[in-house]
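for the recovery benchmark. tokens below, seq after
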């Protein structure tokens, strides 16, 4: 019969040495550095968002856009767009453009773009055809999700109208 009592099994408790503490610290920082390297590589190689190369030029562009927005507001044009997704097919886009007197706009060029808010590589330019004065249609096949619908109207190369609206396609 053993004369052992409780938790004493005859082994000495393990000593915490300076070498053990050093190895634990080195291992901890190696894991942190490895995870940081993986995350930085993933962030840099997958980034396709917006960046500003020249902040001065961005400020000048903003001032120009502000002036254009004021002129656009003064025209009182009414532009409406309808998006009609079809099952398994393209999304139809219909555009109506009327002036302040409710007359159809004539002699204008339209530019319609569906911009993906997170990935420029998914942006879709939509070729628009005129049905009659002030009425246009086009089609595109974007994947479901959130998009920014950007409509621009120009005459003789001068942009006269621009709108940007968030839409959800299912």
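predicted aa per position
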């Amino acid at each position: 019969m053993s004369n052992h009592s409780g938790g004493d099994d005859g082994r000495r408790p393990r000593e915490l040495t300076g070498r053990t503490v050093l190895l634990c610290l080195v291992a901890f920082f190696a894991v942190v550095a490895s995870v940081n390297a993986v995350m930085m590589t993933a962030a840099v190689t997958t980034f396709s968002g917006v960046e500003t190369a020249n902040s001065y030029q961005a400020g000048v562009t903003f001032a120009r856009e502000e002036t254009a927005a004021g002129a656009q507001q003064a025209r009182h044009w009414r532009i409406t767009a309808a998006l009609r997704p079809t099952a398994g097919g393209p999304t139809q886009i219909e555009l109506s453009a009327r002036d302040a007197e409710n007359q159809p706009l004539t002699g204008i060029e339209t530019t319609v773009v569906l911009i993906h808010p997170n990935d420029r590589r998914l942006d879709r330019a939509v070729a628009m055809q005129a049905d009659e004065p002030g009425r246009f249609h086009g089609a595109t096949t974007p994947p479901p999700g959130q998009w920014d619908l950007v409509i621009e109207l120009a005459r003789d190369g001068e942009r006269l109208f621009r709108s940007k609206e968030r839409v959800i396609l299912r």
